[in-house]
Amino acid sequence: MDRTNHVSDISVLENDENGYVMDTFKAFVDTLIPRSEVLAEMYGAIQYYGALDFSTEDFLVMSLDSLYTPMTLTGAELLNAAAKQYLYDKEDERSEDASADGKYFLRLTPDERFEAMAMLLGPDAVNYFPVQEDIGLDEIVPVFPTMNRIVMMGYYSEWWGYGSTRDLPPNERVLQYFPGSWEQVGYPGPSLGYRVARSYNYTS
Predict the structure, then answer these.
(1) CB 3.0-4.6 Å disulfide test: which of 12, 40, 45, 51 passes with 29?
(2) Comparing C-alpha atoms, which of 116, 110, 117 is closest to residue 50?
């Protein structure tokens, strides 16, 4: 079975003029780390916030674009390819609605998105994999697990706290405020140093 297609049916959206990439990634990060009214009621208001509140989709785009082969568009296509297959298999009418802009993943409910993403863990379940010029299937399949890790790294790192300096080179970023995700998990933040025991009295 040929799972590659060098002429992607959404390749014309490469410049993301209709928000194809960002809308897809927003749906992706929101699925992995959604807002939670339940957690807010149980543990406090800070627990309500999710990935969209901390600009995690921007971190995902920046990280994928900085790989040795930029995979930003490919990552979005992977999610939509799985969602497209999911809708087609179920003969769902939403597949026709999404065909105009290619945003199949966006049309799914959170639970359905997880089902579609599970298909990407077993490549035989997806009939269509987008392949860009000079990028083979063996390079594309590992992208999805990488995307999962990047989302978690971006959410729980200091990324959001960089504020207006996020898009600057790393050595020019400044931690402008305490990241909300750090507060959620009780992380105290960076320290200039911790006292350590330099020696022990083993005779006492």
Answers:
(1) 51
(2) 110
* Burial class of residue 179 (count of CB atoms within 10 Å of its CB; 0-12, 13-18, 19+): buried
Total domain count, the chain: 1
> What sign does the dihedral 133-138-143-149 (CA atoms) show?
negative
Which of the four pLDDT bands, split at 50, 70 and 90, describes residue 132?
low
pTM beyond cutoff 0.85: no
| Average predicted confidence (pLDDT) for the chain | 82
Q: 81 with 144: CB under 8 angstroms? A: no
Least trusted range by pLDDT, from 39-43, 75-79, 139-143, 150-154: 139-143
- Residues spanned by the domain of 83: 4-185
What does the pLDDT read at residue 198? Answer: 58
Domain assignment present for residue 200? The answer is no
In a domain, 86, yes or no: yes
Higher pLDDT, 204 or 107: 107
Question: Which phi and psi angles does 196 have, rounded to 5°?
Answer: -130, 155
Q: What is the DSSP string of 23-85?
A: HHHHHHHHHHS---HHHHHHH-GGGG--GGGGTHHHHHHHHHHTSSS--HHHHHHHHHHHHHH
